[in-house]
């Protein structure tokens, strides 16, 4: 269900159940989390096999959840999305085809979401009488704003790549999302980690500025100014 391959400092994580649009089981979510947390690469590139990015949770599994197993499944999804968000490694979602429900939430956990023109998005949980519980209610409004988040989550409507770009759900629409991951991986991994850490800092402005000085001075010792 989850395939990983590392080359050129990129750990490619493939959601590999194309027959069911890469729907995710608890085991697949744990394998995804483990791949992100154990990689030695400087970039994780997450994408789906076949014609979809990810349909979200496997509904056959969801339908059979009882009171004891429902929390375990939700927590597994939360851990996978949080691993993508909190790792020091840069995470890039390459979204080609449909991203639905939990698929959107995994993408929200990534640092960059890069779509192809064929990508579509929907927070489809409401159509089942549910909602996005893999961190979606926390991350979606922070990324697209509360108004857009309410619209997507309450209607379950499908949007295309251009609409996703306009609202900030994705950062680019390109033919080959992997090329963005390759561009990032070509840079110094220490700089990448430092940039990600600095951009995520929520301390006071004064504290952030002090940490910028310290981090910049540290990187300067190994920086290269050769053309």
UniProtKB/TrEMBL annotation:
Keyword Isomerase: yes
Family annotation (Pfam families): ECH_1
Protein keywords: Isomerase
Coiled-coil region: none
Any GO BP: fatty acid beta-oxidation
InterPro entries, sorted: ClpP/crotonase-like_dom_sf, Enoyl-CoA_hyd/isom_CS, Enoyl-CoA_hydra/iso
GO-annotated molecular function: isomerase activity
Family classification: Belongs to the enoyl-CoA hydratase/isomerase family.
UniProt name for this protein: Enoyl-CoA hydratase/isomerase family protein
Organism: Halapricum salinum
């Amino acid at each position: 269900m989850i395939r990983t391959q590392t080359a050129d400092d990129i750990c490619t994580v493939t959601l590999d159940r194309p027959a069911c649009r890469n729907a995710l089981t608890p085991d697949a979510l744990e394998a995804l989390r483990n791949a992100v947390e154990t990689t030695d690469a400087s970039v994780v590139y997450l994408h789906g096999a076949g014609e979809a990015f990810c349909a979200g949770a496997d509904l056959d599994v969801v339908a059979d959840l009882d009171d004891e197993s429902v929390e375990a499944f939700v927590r597994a999804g939360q851990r996978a999305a949080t691993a993508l968000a909190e790792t020091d490694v840069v995470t890039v979602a390459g979204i080609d085809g449909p991203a639905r429900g939990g698929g959107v939430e995994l993408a929200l956990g990534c640092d960059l979401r890069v779509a192809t023109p064929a990508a579509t998005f929907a927070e489809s949980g409401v159509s089942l009488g549910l909602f996005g519980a893999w961190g979606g209610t926390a991350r979606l409004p922070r990324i697209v704003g509360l108004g857009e988040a309410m619209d997507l989550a309450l209607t379950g409507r499908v949007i295309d790549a251009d609409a996703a770009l306009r609202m900030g759900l994705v950062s680019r629409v390109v033919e080959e999302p992997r090329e963005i991951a390759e561009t990032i991986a070509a840079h110094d991994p220490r700089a990448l980690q430092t940039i990600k850490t600095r951009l995520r800092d929520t301390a006071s402005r004064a504290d952030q500025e002090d940490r910028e000085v310290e981090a910049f001075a540290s990187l300067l010792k190994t920086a290269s100014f050769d053309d």
